[in-house]
């Protein structure tokens, strides 16, 4: 089941954010994510967030601002269950287009987005991490 984020979800959501960023981005120091933890915890609720509930627990979430996907995060124990796709489809429902940034070295995420209709439209260097990022976009057919 997918529902809108509620204020008391923040601790579980931010823990998934931190854990999954560290696992998915081994090319970025763990300290980078830990140092940004409090900042992200503070600003996260300003985004439109949907959580995926599985067995009465938050298994993943998606954050979006207008047409920009801030991120999709699924607890690693629940990967490959269609949760990320379901969350992505939820935000596609009422939008004609979407955009996001993804690190070039995060090949799993790039494949996921390509499989869900996104295309790479540009690349740039993230000033905070010095890593190459792709900007990807999706347009409703």
Q: Features of this protein?
A:
single chain; 141 residues; alpha+beta; Aminopeptidase; four-stranded antiparallel beta sheet; 4 helices; 34% strand; globular
Give a description of the structure:
The protein has 141 residues and is α+β, with helices and mostly antiparallel strands. The chain has a single domain (2-139), classed as 3-Layer(aba) Sandwich (Aminopeptidase). Helix content is 34%, strand content 34%. The protein has 4 helices and 7 strands, in the order E-H-H-E-E-E-H-E-H-E-E. It has helices at residues 10-24, 30-43, 83-92, 107-115; strands at residues 2-4, 48-54, 57-65, 68-74, 97-103, 119-125, 132-139. The strands form 2 sheets. It has a 4-stranded antiparallel sheet, with helices on both faces. A 3-stranded antiparallel sheet has the order 5-7-6, with helices on one face. A hairpin with a 2-residue loop joins strand 3 (57-65) and strand 4 (68-74). Helix 1 packs antiparallel against helix 2. The longest helix is centred in the first third of the chain and has 15 residues, at 10-24. It is globular.
Low-confidence stretches: none
CATH superfamily descriptor:
Gcn5-related N-acetyltransferase (GNAT)
- Roughly what is the average pLDDT, rounded to an integer? 95
The side-by-side strand order for the widest beta sheet comes to 1-2-3-4
Number of domains: 1
Rg from Cα: 14 Å
Topology:
Elements: E1 2-4, H1 10-24, H2 30-43, E2 48-54, E3 57-65, E4 68-74, H3 83-92, E5 97-103, H4 107-115, E6 119-125, E7 132-139
Antiparallel strand pairs: 1-2, 2-3, 3-4, 5-7, 6-7
Helix pairs in contact: 1-2
């Amino acid at each position: 089941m997918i529902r809108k984020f509620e204020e008391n979800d923040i601790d579980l959501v931010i823990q998934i954010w931190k854990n999954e960023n560290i696992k998915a981005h081994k090319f970025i120091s763990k300290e980078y994510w830990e140092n940004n933890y409090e900042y992200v915890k503070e600003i996260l609720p300003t985004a439109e967030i949907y959580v995926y509930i599985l067995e009465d627990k938050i298994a993943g979430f998606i954050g979006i601002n207008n047409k920009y996907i801030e991120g999709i995060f699924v607890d690693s124990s629940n990967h490959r269950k269609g949760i990320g796709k379901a969350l992505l489809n939820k935000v596609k429902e009422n939008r004609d287009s979407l955009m996001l940034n993804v690190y070039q070295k995060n090949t799993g995420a790039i494949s996921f987005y390509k499989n869900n209709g996104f295309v790479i439209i540009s690349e740039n260097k993230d000033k905070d991490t010095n890593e190459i990022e792709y900007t990807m976009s999706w347009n409703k057919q």
